[in-house]
Design goal:
181 residues; alpha/beta; Rossmann fold; five-stranded parallel beta sheet; 5 strands
Length: 181
């Protein structure tokens, strides 16, 4: 079910950012159920529109082409309301995407440490930036993106927490923020 935005209505999305393997999709589904929102995985939206996998897009057309599709998918969320949006790990690399994410609603960084991330992504063949690459290069990417993620409105530590605990933490943080406003 797609919710279309009325012209005077803000999108009021919850936008999840973080490195690959941080749990954006898993936590996003739980958060959507908790908050009565629709769940949208941007990577899945891109694959549906392109009619191919992210891995194939990277292999055939390259990362830059994928980043264009990613920005388009993010901008399409401006036409919808009340969603939890799981983004790809690299969406934070474009200033234009930050402008759009801020217009969409609250940007939430799912913060994890390198050891936890690597345990989740090391053997995953579907992650194009990991496949066939030295993990030290991926670690450098992790370090490069961290300051970008930290620009989020909220930061939630996810290490050693179940997805339901992370989602509840987000709901509590949002509630506190709302009461401060």
């Amino acid at each position: 079910m797609t919710k279309n935005r009325a012209s005077s209505e803000k999108p009021d999305h919850l936008v999840l950012v973080g490195f690959m393997g941080a749990g954006k999709t898993t936590v996003g589904r739980v958060l959507a159920a908790l908050t009565g929102r629709e769940f949208v995985d941007l990577d899945h939206s891109i694959e549906e529109k392109a009619k191919t996998s992210i891995k194939n897009i990277f292999a055939v057309q390259g990362e830059e082409y994928f980043r264009v599709l990613e920005s388009e998918a993010l901008e399409a969320m401006l036409k919808r309301t009340h969603c939890v949006v799981a983004t790809g790990g690299g969406i934070v690399g474009r200033a234009k995407n930050w402008e759009v994410m801020r217009r969409l609603g609250a940007v939430i960084y799912l913060e994890n440490d390198w050891e936890t991330i690597v345990s989740r992504i090391a053997d995953c063949p579907d992650r194009p930036l990991v496949t066939g690459k030295d993990l030290e290069n991926v670690r450098a990417l992790f370090a490069q993106r961290q300051p970008l993620y930290e620009q989020a409105d909220l930061r939630v530590a996810v290490k050693n927490q179940k997805p339901s605990e992370v989602a509840l933490s987000i709901v509590e943080m949002l509630s506190r923020e709302k009461h401060r406003a």
